[in-house]
Amino acid sequence: MPVKPLSYYRERYIRHQPSPFCPGCGNGIILNCFARAVDELGLDQDRILCVSGIGCSAWIPSPHFNSDTLHTTHGRALAFATGAKVFNSDLTVVVFTGDGDGAGIGGNHLIHAARRNIDITTILVNNLSYAMTGGQIAPTTLHGSRTITSPYGNPENPFDLCRLVAAAGATYVARWTAYHVVELTRSMEEAIKNRGFSFIEVISPCPTRQRRIFGFRNPIYEVPSRIMEMLVESTYIRGREPKGHYCYAIPRAGVKEALEAVETELGRRDLGAGVRQVDHLRWGTVLRVDCAGPEELDSVKELLGEVPEVERVVGALEGKVELGVFVRERRPEFVESLREVMRRAGGV
Length: 348
Ligand SMILES: Cc1ncc(C[n+]2csc(CCOP(=O)(O)OP(=O)(O)O)c2C)c(N)n1
Ligand code: SF4
Ligand SMILES: [Mg+2]
Prior knowledge:
Blueprint: H1 6-13, H2 27-41, E1 48-52, E2 68-71, H3 77-87, E3 92-98, H4 99-105, H5 107-116, E4 120-126, H6 161-168, E5 172-177, H7 181-193, E6 198-203, H8 207-213, H9 223-233, E7 235-237, E8 245-251, H10 255-269, E9 274-280, E10 284-291, H11 294-305, E11 310-315, E12 321-328, H12 334-344
Parallel strand pairs: 1-2, 1-3, 3-4, 4-6, 5-6, 7-12
Antiparallel strand pairs: 5-12, 8-10, 8-11, 9-10
Helix pairs in contact: 2-7, 4-5, 5-6
Bound molecules: thiamine diphosphate (TPP), iron/sulfur cluster (SF4) and magnesium ion.
């Protein structure tokens, strides 16, 4: 099949409006993936309803996506979407929500929509804060993160949204990042095709707020690529073996001092290992040490444990976020069950 140019998607699916998103924001990427998923499925744009609440992520479809869009109140997108789907079950209903909108103020709607297994696809953009209002802590902000409402670190633990929604009864649940565009697009297609409640969490870059959250001191134009690299470093795809043999060294104080000390030790022992500074969602800015094979890795771990500038050595997968599809199930769908009950009651 010939590859379609970007202009094809822009002309057909995107309304000509100035973008409200900051440079480097993940929201534009998610919109792009959605347009491709809709195109791949050959959906009739006149039968798609995109519903969003309030927040930066609410602007992904509204007013930009060329279908009906309903921009509702904070946290209530799923309530509006439920009404629309019950009224007209032929519609493909897709909710775009943020982590604050969907898991904070709208968290109750989320678990009940999942429990009912209503045929709605929810795409939740997890940028780890209330971005639009300044980057306050959300129920997804990582433990210890410094935000404007937790300047000394977040004392709370975040939700694992995929587990929450899966436990509540959703029949399709997946997590990707805005870096994993091919997987995300395929997942959107699967989610839309599922006749039930589908949920995709997308971990997304928000350079404007995450610069503070991750403590990056780079000029702002360097932040987007640094965040993207961090998303790759700190995630793994379910069922896929991690490539290479490596571990992380968490510095005791300064990362530069630890880097120098580790470089010196590795050079002295000639273990054929390479060390570099990386950013990790869980561990912050740490050292990654890559080895030629598993035996070398064991020796390197032992050596790192003896370097005074290294506080702790952690394995490649420890603390990484799992991506992939977690649930694919079949259960009775809510609107069909409701219609059946109404028929029995003699209403329709
Ligand atoms: C009832 C109500 N409370 C608070 C607000 C202020 N408000 C607007 S956007 C927002 C946070 C949105 O965060 P999130 O859903 O994570 O979206 P993001 O901007 O991060 O994409 C808040 C608290 C509001 N608009 N309405
Ligand atoms: S504040 Fe963050 S989420 Fe909002 S548009 Fe800017 S980069 Fe995107
Ligand atoms: Mg957010």
